[in-house]
Structures are given as C-alpha cells and as structure tokens.
Design brief:
The chain has about 450 residues and is an alpha+beta fold. The protein is built from 10 helices and 32 strands. The protein has 3 domains: about 1-90, Potassium Channel Kv1.1, Chain A, CATH 3.30.710; about 95-150, no CATH class; about 155-450, 6 Propeller (Neuraminidase).
Length: about 450
C-alpha cells in the first residue's frame, strides 16, 4: 500500500493512494497525467475544507457518518471537486426532512446532478411541510421541484390466478387520491400474475412481482411481471432459478434481491439477485437459515433482513451487496413474539411484531438504531387492525398503514409514532401490498375518467 500525504488547509492527511485513485476521478486523472504531481507522495488541495476531506476519507473507508448541515456543505463541495461517486451516494442516502433543502441548494451550486435530483424528489414529496421555505429558493430551483411528480400511495390485494372469465376484485391495483380521499383504480394486474404469497417491490418507478402461489395447496406460480408506471404498461420477465412462494423481494440500485421463501411447503434459504440491465438472475450467499417471508427493509442505502429462532430471538442481518455476504448486526429476545414487518427511516429500523402471548390484535414496535447499535421499545401498544401495521411504508417522516377500515398515517417524531391523520380504507381485506409510485398526470386523468364513483372509484 502506497501512502499519500494530502494537505488541506492546515491539516495533513495520510491516506492510501490506491483508495483515492479507485474512487476519485480527480486523483485518477492526476496520477495518470504524467505531470510532476503524479510522482509526488505529498500534494496540497486548494479551495477545499479539511472537514470535507476528512468526511470523504471516512466514507471511502466504509464508514457512514451522519452529518450536520455545515458538514454537508463541505462534503458536497468535496464530492463535486474530487468527483467521488461513493460520497455522492452517501449524501443521497442521508437526505431527510431536516437537510433536504441544504442538500438541494448545495448540489445545485456545485453541480452534483444526482444529489440535486434526489433531493428535489424528496422535497416534492413533503412539499406542504416545507412550502414557506421552498418559496425562498431561487425561481429556477422552485420550478424544477414543481416539474416533478409527487409519489402516490398504491395498494393491491392478494390475488391468485383464476379462470380468465372469473372477475377477481383482488386483481385491482389502486392509488389513493389524498386530496379527494378516494381510492382510484389503476386497472388489473395480469391474469396469470399472483400477488398471493408473492415477492412484490418497487424500483425505478416500476412494480415487480415475483413468484407467489395459487390454490389451497400453494402451487407455485413460476412467472414474474413488471408494471411500468411511466408508461402504464405491464410486461413479463424471467423468474428466479429456484421457484418459490412467500419470497421477500427488495429493489436496490439496479437489482432485485429475492430472499428466502418456500417451495412445496419447505422453507428455503436461497438468495438470488436480478440485474435489470443484463436481465439475468444469479445466486447470492444464502440466508443463515431457511425462512419463508423474512421481513426486509432498506435504511441508509443498506439492505437488512430479519430472521428469528423460535421461540424468542429476532436477528437482524445486513446483506452486503458489494461483498455478497450476510452480516449479523444485532439480535433481541422477546418470548413468543416475532417480527412480521420491518421498515427503515433515517438510521433506524422499526420492527413490528405481534403482542404478548401471540396477540395479533395489538402490535409492539421495536427500534434498532444503526448508529448507536441500541434497541428501544416504542411506548405503548399499537392496534394492528387486521394487519395494518404489517403493511407499513414510509414517505418522508410519515408512515402509511392500511386496512379495510382506514388508512392511518403516523408521524415519526423523536423515536415515537404519533397518529396524525385518517383516510379511507381499502375495500380488499386480508394481505395487502403497499408502495409508492410516481404516477404521471396523464395516467391519473385517464384512469379517473374510466372509473368514476362518488365515494371510491374502484367500487
């Protein structure tokens, strides 16, 4: 390993030269230029802050530090000047309601287009909460935010393929018109698709459905489908090598990850990933134990999977996508209580579990903080209402939960979930899949004309 001494302001940093060349376009160009500096073991960087360079080195060495607004400004400057994609990705993963405007303006100033766009999308989703601050932005920045489509809450019930001429309401996929408090149909999923015990996730404004089952005997459905929200079209794509149902599907950075599942009533530990660009499935490192439907979530740009050992231990593993490895992060013991849903918010994982003595009408929420590595239990018990909290998804700082009776929104604030709003429920009871999509206005207008009702547009 060749050390390099880098002077920034009055601070000298000693770092791995190869690490900088690997991750920084600036240093790669510098040391391949043939100029005098390319053979030196000490260089000086001008017009950059020492704090920003320190953050850069921490990220390149695998850390994921939380940053103050001042630190964000220096980090953005370094990411732009040194052209460090890994640092830009880390900044994107840090976007939240407290720093999104700072990220947005800084990215605009230094020309970090990916960060600029992702921060704008985040702001668009919580526009009402930031409206006064948004109006203080330069006009061109306001116009860019206004040009974007906000994310929309979408749901579909558990559908198993049936005879073509039989109508099945569970095939209907709907979105919530929050302004009018109505569910509006987006049409039906393909007749041969299954959302019953299927893996369902979103990526790149598309819905992906993998596997699933049909009938009481749980016959596996070995077909996979994709809904493109931008074009309002369905298509079929290759299924994983191992057919299975009750598989957990996660979309992340151009890949679909399929975890666990069940085949012929036997849990499996297989992990496969699908590359959207090459359209190929490959096997990854298996889960530490077979598991059907393991809860999974993303937080801080990382994938986490929850497993449990009957009857008392819940274990959180990180799936390291770069190293293709399952890493045990933490575990917690709770007698006869299992995690059924997990969601990520900032550097927190929230695990929803059944109440004491297998009480599924009440829900206990555990919080694991990735930074402090500490577990806390949210105060009180949350009414589960037939699975509502087991279909939780988050937009900004707001949790959306859903059942037949109502859509209940919670605000995540200081480690608590506070109910803030109720909206209409979803007509289909039982297992639900919920997610967010950015639906073009033309699609919303089209489906609203096709499905009209004074109450719920898909009835």
């Amino acid at each position: 390993m060749a050390n390099l001494h880098v002077k920034v302001e009055e601070t000298v940093f000693t770092t791995d030269k190869e690490l900088l060349v690997k991750h920084s376009e600036y240093f790669r160009a510098l040391f391949q230029s043939g100029m005098r500096e390319s053979s030196q073991d000490e260089i000086q960087l001008h017009n950059l802050g020492a704090m920003g360079f320190l953050i850069t080195l921490r990220v390149l060495n695998g850390e994921r530090p939380l940053l103050s607004c001042e630190e964000i400004l220096e980090a953005v400057e370094c990411a732009a000047f040194l052209q460090v994609e890994l640092l830009t990705k880390h900044l994107i993963n840090l976007i939240d309601s407290d720093n999104c405007l700072v990220m947005y303006e800084a990215a605009a100033t230094y020309g970090l287009l990916n960060l600029f766009h992702e921060a704008a999308l985040y702001i668009r989703d919580i526009y009402e909460l930031l409206e006064k601050d948004i109006q203080a932005l330069p006009e061109d920045l306001i116009q860019y935010i206004d040009s974007l489509m906000p994310s929309t809450y979408v749901a579909v019930g558990a559908h198993t393929p049936t005879i073509e001429f039989l109508e099945d309401l569970s095939r209907t996929m709907c979105f919530l018109n929050e302004k009018d408090n109505q569910w509006v149909s987006l049409g039906c999923i393909p007749e041969n698709a299954s959302t019953f015990l299927a893996g369902v996730t979103t990526l790149n404004n598309k819905i992906f459905i993998v596997g699933g089952a049909r009938g009481a005997n749980k016959q596996v459905v070995d077909r996979s489908f994709c809904y493109d929200a931008d074009n309002h079209t369905w298509s079929e794509f290759d299924s994983p090598h191992q057919p299975r149902y009750e598989v957990t599907l996660v979309g992340h950075e151009g890949y679909l990850y399929a975890f666990g599942g069940e085949f012929e009533r036997v849990p499996v530990s297989y992990v496969e990933r699908y590359c959207l660009s090459s359209q190929v499935w490959t096997f990854g490192k298996e889960l530490p134990q077979p598991m059907a439907g393991p809860p999974a979530a993303k937080a801080m740009g990382r994938i986490f999977v929850s497993l449990w050992k009957p009857h008392d231990t819940t274990m959180i593993y990180e799936y390291d996508t770069d190293k293709d490895d399952q890493v045990l992060i933490s575990s917690i013991k709770r007698p006869r209580s299992y995690g059924h849903c997990m969601v990520g918010h900032r550097d927190n994982l929230y695990i929803m579990r059944n109440g004491p003595s297998d009480d599924f009408l009440h829900c206990i929420i555990e919080n694991f903080n990735l930074t402090t590595q500490q577990w806390t239990t949210l105060s009180g018990q949350y009414v589960n209402s037939k699975g509502a909290l087991f279909t939780a998804v988050i937009r900004g700082d707001t949790v959306f939960t859903l059942n037949r009776m109502m859509t209940l929104l919670y605000k995540i604030d200081a480690g608590t979930w506070k109910p803030i709003k109720e909206k209409c429920g979803f007509i289909k009871s039982g297992t639900l899949h919920t997610f967010f999509l950015r639906l073009p206005m033309k699609t919303k207008l089209m489906v609203s004309k096709l499905y009209k009702s004074p109450h719920q547009s898909f009835l």
